[in-house]
Design goal:
There is one protein chain. It contains 4 helices and 12 strands. The protein is of the alpha+beta class. The protein has one domain. The strands form 2 sheets. Strands 1, 2, 3, 4, 8, 9 and 12 form a 7-stranded antiparallel sheet that branches. It has a 5-stranded antiparallel sheet with strand order 5-11-10-6-7. The chain is globular.
Length: about 200
């Protein structure tokens, strides 16, 4: 994604200032004037239980708050957020474009049945059109007060569980609910954001 933004920053800026873009469930789409740029993402969740690993893949919703933040950082000089975190939710809901960091804890019912803070989203700098924490997935080790159900994940800028500050970038409803979570279950979450030609 960084390469596309760097190489096409002026053209992208013109489209954004002129309103020639569309916020889609998968990301931001610039599809006018032959540019055809799409930024979207996917979550992967892996349940490690009884010596087995079960992985699910779920498309994301890049929420309006995240899109606005991304545009302001790249084109308007807003300060970059240098660390992001993964949170889980248990509510029987699907992420919506109007979700925000200030309201998502209540809207989605954050799952907090694990020690410590929200695990960090750690992604190295990329030389491709994708960026991901695949090499260092966010890991949730559940306590023994469950069982818990995880129905989805969020990419958010605040580390504290229950926090209503910061920026919400994206969220997903897992392809399958993760039920019966308890110690010693582990749940790993990876997020990949990709920028590509929308016609590809």
């Amino acid at each position: 994604m960084n390469d596309i933004l760097k190489n096409n920053a002026r053209e992208i800026g013109r489209h954004l200032r002129s309103g020639r873009f569309e916020a889609t469930p998968g990301g931001i789409l610039i599809d006018r004037a032959g540019m055809n740029l799409l930024a979207n993402g996917v979550f992967e969740d892996t349940l490690y239980r009884n010596g087995e690993a079960d992985t699910g893949i779920s498309p994301n919703m890049v929420v309006d708050e995240g899109l606005i933040h991304m545009l302001n950082v790249v084109f308007a000089g807003t300060a970059q957020i240098t660390q992001w975190y993964i949170a889980l939710f248990s509510g029987n809901v699907t992420p919506q474009a109007d979700w925000k960091a200030s309201t998502v804890v209540a809207q989605a019912t954050e799952l907090v049945g694990y020690p410590g803070a929200r695990p960090a989203f750690t992604a190295p700098a990329t030389t491709t059109k994708s960026i991901s924490n695949a090499a260092s997935e966010a890991s949730f080790a559940f306590d023994d007060a469950g069982p818990y159900t995880a129905r989805g994940a969020l990419l958010i800028s605040s580390s504290a569980k229950g926090s209503t500050t910061g920026v919400l970038m994206a969220g997903t409803r897992f392809a399958s609910d993760r039920t019966g979570l308890n110690s010693p279950d582990l749940l790993g979450v990876r997020y990949t954001l990709t920028a590509a030609d929308a016609g590809s």
